[in-house]
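Private note to self, pasted from the team thread so I don't lose it. Backbone tokens:
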């Protein structure tokens, strides 16, 4: 897929990146190269291959999923503008 200069300008605008006009052809070329590489990756047959988290096989550390208050509510609420009865107090927004 080929990216033209107008598309590169639009992508830069959407990404909020200021790109000088004389750099737009290089940006368009780089974006085209990236899309070409992504198309090549799409052609790779990955059926039956397990997803990996690293190039070396390892098991991720797991912990029990337990809901807690963090164990130190006083520290959490210390800098709150308004805290009552162990909770953040916020203005009422619904009548």
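Design output:
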């Amino acid at each position: 897929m080929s990216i033209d200069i107008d598309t590169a300008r639009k992508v830069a605008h959407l990404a909020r990146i200021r790109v000088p006009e004389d750099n737009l052809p290089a940006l368009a070329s780089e974006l085209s190269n990236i899309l070409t590489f992504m198309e090549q990756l799409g052609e790779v047959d990955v059926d039956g291959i397990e997803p990996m988290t690293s190039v070396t096989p390892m098991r991720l550390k797991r912990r029990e999923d337990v809901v807690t208050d963090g164990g130190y509510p006083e520290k959490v609420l210390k800098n709150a503008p308004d805290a009552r009865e162990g909770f953040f107090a916020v203005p009422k927004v619904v009548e």
